């Protein structure tokens, strides 16, 4: 296995991950209900992870606001992380792979806290 090195690797990561998400009994229905154009969503996710992992500034925007509309709970983030880490571990090994897992955990934690705060208002 190799590390995440280029856009081809990012595409493999994103495509494999969202294949798992769409099959998941809990996350699949949520994503299917809210993502109207999967091709556009995947392209956006390529740019997002390319910016984070490869330091190539191709993503601009704010990833949090679209998630406010989703009916997601803390346990959904746990599933998301499990699937993301499983995907990484199936395809990659190395410094960038570990960085991807760490970044995903951080994102999930921040999103979960923000969403909980919004719901309590």
Helix share, percent:
over 70%
- Average pLDDT, rounded to a whole number, is 93
> Number of helical runs?
6
Characterize the quaternary organization of these chains.
Answer: single chain
Beta-sheet strand percentage? under 5%
Shape: globular
Q: What's the total count of β strands?
A: 0
Radius of gyration: 14 Å
- Secondary-structure element pattern, one letter each: HHHHHH
> How would you characterize the largest beta sheet?
none
How would you describe the overall organization of this protein?
With 121 residues, the chain is mainly alpha-helical. The termini are far apart.
Topology, pairings included?
Blueprint: H1 7-23, H2 27-34, H3 38-54, H4 65-68, H5 74-91, H6 95-120
Brief description of this entry?
Helix content is 74%, strand content 0%. The chain has six helices and no strands.
Which terms would index this structure?
about 120 residues; single chain; mainly alpha; globular
